[in-house]
Amino acid sequence: MGPGKCPFCGQQIDAEATKCFFCGAELDEESVEKRVEELIVEDSKKPALKSKSPPVLQLAVIIVLICIALFSGTSKRKPIFNKARFSRESTVRLNTKVVFTGAKFIISNDDTFDWTNVELQIIPETDESNFSLEVFKIPAGEKYSVNAAEFVTKDGSNFNPNKMKPKRFRIWCDTPTRVNGSYFAGWN
Asked: Does the pTM exceed 0.70?
């Protein structure tokens, strides 16, 4: 006695069983042969499955979808910082407090609106290159904490708080009223 499968319902049954415990089908030789013939006829009536697309076509579709995901909207996105767009007439002074702990900057958005497309900038004591960091959004009433080493120059150098000290700190951002926001402060 070993396990077998019922040809009618597919459940595991005793190989010597004369009737399926699950579906009640008779398992005599004539009934089983009749069922096998029915299954063959059913399979022949099913439409043939379409062949799969060639792997090259699948790969091409995947590459196109990846490109769309990576590059969608980049042509419409405005640059985060454009010096020409900031002037005294079109800039709102941001209500903020910036604290430097020696390794981190803690920036408080004390305004009643979110800052978007934010550029944070450190000007070191040596007045060498400015170190920048772009942030998508700093919500109203929240603090944003960032490691000083995350700020980089255009050539990719990181700000090193162990070797450099910040002299000035700037913030530029977009506001909901389409007026640009700015902040500028310094340390002694």
From this structure: no
